[in-house]
Amino acid sequence: MKSILSAALLLFSALAHAAFPVEIFEYLDNVKLVAFIQQEDIDNSQSWSPEQGEPPLGIKQVIEATLQNCQDDNNIANPVIKRIELRPVPQNPDHWHYMVMLGAGAAGEKQASHYYVVLMSGKVIPAIREPEGYK
């Protein structure tokens, strides 16, 4: 009975781990961001380190993937790439990602900022601005 209970607990904990996304916290232009990424998506992206040379996903592909994502999301009009940074995925040092900041809005208007994580597989994941706490 004890071994059955242990096996069930182990299976449940494995399933629970798979069900919850990995939270990554990043800063971009002094803005604290959070993104929720499935571990499976991280595992499916190509591993890479700077010592290996060029990253498997270049800047051109990052821009194309991000802009395609904006076309699929009707809430973002006239997107403009403002910043791109290459960073390791926390707790997954063999995997890297791009942080992308977009400005969006009509010409002459103040542009709203949108943030994305782009994995080396080309998958684009929205990042959200973490709310500031009350002081």
List its salient traits.
alpha+beta, 135 residues, 6-stranded antiparallel β-sheet, 3 helices
Describe this structure in words.
With 135 residues, the protein is α+β, with helices and mostly antiparallel strands. It has one domain (20-129). It is built from three helices and six strands; from the N terminus they run αββααββββ. The protein has helices spanning 2-19, 39-44, 59-72, and strands spanning 22-28, 31-37, 79-89, 92-104, 112-119, 124-129. It has a six-stranded antiparallel sheet with strand order 1-2-6-5-4-3. Strand 1 (22-28) and strand 2 (31-37) form a beta hairpin. It is globular, with a radius of gyration of 18 Å. The termini are far apart.
Helix run count: 3
Annotation, overall tally of beta strands:
6
Structural class: alpha+beta
List the domain count as a whole number. Answer: 1
Write down the overall geometry: globular
The strands making up the biggest β-sheet line up spatially as: 1-2-6-5-4-3
* Mean pLDDT across every amino acid position: 84
Rg, nearest Å: 18 Å
Helix content: 25-40%
Q: Could you tell me the strand content as a percent range?
A: 35-45%
Question: Could you give the distance between the termini?
Answer: 52 Å
The arrangement of helices and strands along the chain is HEEHHEEEE
Unreliable spans are none
The major beta sheet can be summarized as: 6 strands, antiparallel
